Amino acid sequence: MLKNILTLIFGFIILLSTISNAFIPTFSLEKPTEWQYVKVPYKNNKFLLEESDNGFNWHFEALTSFHYQSPSLNGINFDLKIKYQAFAGMEFNYVDLKKKDNNLITKYKLYSLYYIPITIPSQYSAFEIKLGLKHLEQEEIIYGYAFGFNYELLPKKPVTFNLSMEHVYLDERPFYDFDWTCGFYWKKINFFLGYRYLSSKTLFLSGTHAGIKYNF
Q: Which CATH architecture has domain 56-215?
């Protein structure tokens, strides 16, 4: 089952990349460290990234969303990403969930800290590989090493697609975090709706989430 899911996800990424390369012209990748994020996506015929003239650019993303699976399981999510050019960066993510079972309320808190050592950029997309730590607080505190990726595509104004997946071992047990969103840009703000799947020994979430992301 897991192999089929992973195969489907990576196949989806390859398909999107093939479509974007086939129908959308891209910039030269001879100097990828000189790429930078545009200040306002889709403004002045620019999309996600552009070649940098000054060789110095910081990019910040702040995101918040509300997760909903059922009246008995929901919560909030915060994410902050800091990147230098379109190359290396850091990402912090926080998820706060509440699960109601009769009169019992169980709280889950997830903290994730990632280093992004590799970004594969183009004018319309960015594929990031990330390494880090994930920390889960419930009745006990457990943490583990994590590996994952982010993929963002801006195919046509004002649409945006995002795909993220993380694989973690928490207390020597597998933990999966899959997130897919579709949204649109209005100036620097991205409004999105998506699906998130979290699965571990003690926590299972499979539901929708909606929120906003701000680029600055």
A: Beta Barrel (2.40)
